Amino acid sequence: MNDQESDQRHISPLHRDGPLRVVLTGGPGGGKTTAADLFRREIGDRVIVVPEAATLLFSGGFPRPEEPAAARSAQSAIYHVQRNLEDVQAARYPDRILLCDRGTVDGGAYWPGGPDEFFASVGSSHEEELSRYDAVIFFESAACGGHGFESENRFRTESQQQAVDLDGHLRALWAPHPSFTLISHSTSFFRKMTVGVGILENLVAVTG
Fold first, then answer.
1. Contacts for 180 with CB less than 8 Å, ≥ 6 apart
2. Which domains does the chain have, with CATH numbers?
3. What DSSP line would sit under 21-70, residue for residue?
4. Residue 139 three-state SS
5. Which H or E run includes 164?
6. Helix (H) or strand (E) run with residue 119 in it
7. Rounded to whole angstroms, how far apart are CA atoms 11 and 176?
8. Residue 38 φ/ψ, nearest 5 degrees
9. pTM (predicted TM-score)
10. pLDDT tens sequence across 35-76
């Protein structure tokens, strides 16, 4: 797949009950947060962005531990904050599109014991968490193409190889979603954002 292509299995989202809920995810430095901001500016008050829970917690002083037991506690907190942020915004803005900067499935890629243990720990399942979202747009990390890995988020501390590994783990978790789109890395960040925003516009057009 070249750097101008994307892989979208279904244009139509799942049409869950409630507002359209689209998750933007991917490896570190993939551009998802930039895409969310661009789309919000383009669409205006038809969309509400649900911020990334991990960044909210870490920027507020929540520790980012490496010890397995502590990391499990941190990921559990992130999961519950992310889930409740989405539900709060869905209740406050029932007529708007929810654009989620990461989603609850992501925790499976960061959990020290692996995704099965993660979903069991939070009292859920992989399938249940995927079903929370109507569509998934996955922004592949620039690190996967051997490009310089940079992130404007100072709370992202992964090395280039860690970014590649995380991208693979996250993609494996999200790819089973029936409305999954992969936006590959590109030598042109502008082109990548153009593709991403275009796909978001198509999703909105399909749902009216």
1. 7, 8, 9, 135, 136, 138, 174
2. 6-206 (3.40.50.300)
3. EEEEEESTTSSHHHHHHHHHHHHGGGEEEE--HHHHHHHTT-----SHHH
4. strand
5. helix 160-174
6. helix 115-121
7. 15
8. -60, -45
9. 0.84
10. 888 888 877 788 899 999 999 999 999 998 989 999 999 999
